[in-house]
Amino acid sequence: MSKSSILVARAIFPEVLQTLSQVFEVESNQADEVWSAAELTRRMQGKQGALTTGSERIDAALLQANPQLKMVANMAVGFNNFDVPAMTAAGVLASNTPDVLTETTADFGFALLMATARRISESEHYLRAGHWTKWSYDMFAGAEVHGSKLGILGMGRIGQGIARRAAHGFGMEVMYHNRSRLSADLEAECKARYVSKEELLTTADHVMLVVPYSAASHHTIGAAELAMMQPTATLVNIARGGIVDDAALAKALAAGQIAAAGLDVFEGEPQVHPDLLKVPNVVLTPHIASATIKTRKAMAQLAADNLIAFFSNGQALTPLNSLPGAAA
Ligand code: 8YV
């Protein structure tokens, strides 16, 4: 039987590419070129499958131009780059990479919270710039983390991982808001109390965003929500760009409406709102919450395994949609 053809749209670990090459005819992008939508659509020609990252958009136009496409495996847990209803309508299976990045991403959320509350980036820039000539009692005094109130918006697997770290490791009082409430057992395990979004925003010392992006969650945090937060509060976004109105956040930070923010994701990334670059009280990282070699390998491997499973038996390991009578 002839091999199916797949496109690996971004550079990935050579050993994962090697595994895929044993099963498929592979066109890869190991040079990691940034392709336009038109170029991605063109490269998809003749491919039955594809491995993408969060940067490649699979939408109705690409699907229409590629009726031969059967499956796309995203190397990310978030899948707002996929138009899943359009994929289902076109008979294209979609998969993502849940679980393998949960703890690593929760670690990073906590690291960003610590860096933000304790002003680590801001003070390092000060030191590197040669401004440190003497110690003073209130120099870079930040916000307490241990024993403080953490509000988590979005209580999926990563949110729960952050709650466990906060409650068990740092004795924090954890509140959360989510579309659906956790079971009593999970709430007890995470030591997390379900509250309204309003209570969370008005009372938390630190707000952590872990909600998936969709049209409904666009600008979950905008000017109105920032105005509800305490002037001493911090905000951390490890979810997706677009969950926060970055322009409104830059204004709130400059005005001292909230104390500080930590951002790993941005509207229109890799572009960053220029006003965010001007304010000192924000820690900025380039979408690296899942970036450890072990986790990124596990993500790439799971995306590859999804393709292999689908093309060998018609079933992906971690599918996002189901197709009537699907078989490769
Ligand atoms: C990815 C992420 O690294 O999994 C996700 O949803 O945001 C990150 O872990 C990024 O999306 C690249 O695919």
Structure, briefly:
The protein has 328 residues and is α/β, with parallel strands linked by helices.
What structural keywords apply?
alpha/beta; Rossmann fold; 2 domains; five-stranded parallel sheet; globular; binds 2-keto-D-gluconic acid
Describe this structure in words.
With 328 residues, this protein is of the alpha/beta class. It has 2 domains: 5-100 and 293-313, NAD(P)-binding Rossmann-like Domain (Rossmann fold, 3-Layer(aba) Sandwich); 102-284, NAD(P)-binding Rossmann-like Domain (Rossmann fold, 3-Layer(aba) Sandwich), CATH 3.40.50. The protein contains 13 helices and 12 strands. It has helices spanning 14-23, 37-43, 60-65, 84-89, 102-117, 120-128, 157-170, 184-190, 197-203, 223-228, 246-255, 274-278, 293-313, and strands at residues 5-8, 25-28, 49-52, 71-74, 93-95, 149-153, 173-177, 192-194, 206-209, 234-237, 260-263, 282-284. The strands form 2 sheets. The chain has a 7-stranded parallel beta sheet, sandwiched between helices. Strand 7 (173-177), helix 8 (184-190) and strand 8 form a beta-alpha-beta unit. Helix 1 (14-23) packs parallel to helix 13 and helix 5 packs across helix 7. The radius of gyration is 22 Å and the shape is globular. The protein starts with a strand and ends in a 15-residue tail after the last helix. The mean pLDDT is 97.
